[in-house]
Amino acid sequence: MDKAPLTRRQTPGRSTPWSLGQRVKAFLWAAAWPALCGWTPKPLNPWRLFVLRLFGATIHGTPFVHQRARIQLPWNIELHDLACVGDRANLYSLDRITLHRGALVAQESYLCTGTHDWQDPEWPLLTAPIVVGERAVLGARTFVMPGVTIGDRAITGAMSVVTRSVAPGMTVRGNPAH
What we know:
Mean pLDDT: 94
Radius of gyration: 16 Å
Shape: globular
Number of helices: 2
Low-confidence stretches: none
Largest sheet: 6 strands, parallel
Strand content: 25-35%
CATH topology: UDP N-Acetylglucosamine Acyltransferase, domain 1
Distance between the termini: 13 Å
Number of domains: 1
Number of strands: 19
């Protein structure tokens, strides 16, 4: 399986690809999640989902988001029924992250949709979406690179670095995952 192509998000000479409005919204979100959700016990998951929806996340059914999960830009998140974002998992959602039904992102995993073009002296931001398929499992501390799709029922071992897409039903592990 191939990775999704990277999208150039930054125009030459600009210090940020985000508009003032987007930066204000991100600032409000950064304050809202710890204040409204970071202290909540696990049974208050419906409240956390409400707050995520309020900030533009697309929620289908009843996924679970741990109170200590970190989500960069919730309007780039799509969570399906029974998907789970574990304790201290980090969804660095500069581009779209989709977790399909029953997908599990274990504790301290990091899904990273952004990188930089190191060949360009201005190091512009490049992004690509990440998709985690139905009932796929990302083991603890898995790192997923931009543009990767984890197929349905695929499994990544703990502490794997996933640099390429994983076919449905496959099990991968290691750095880089194979």
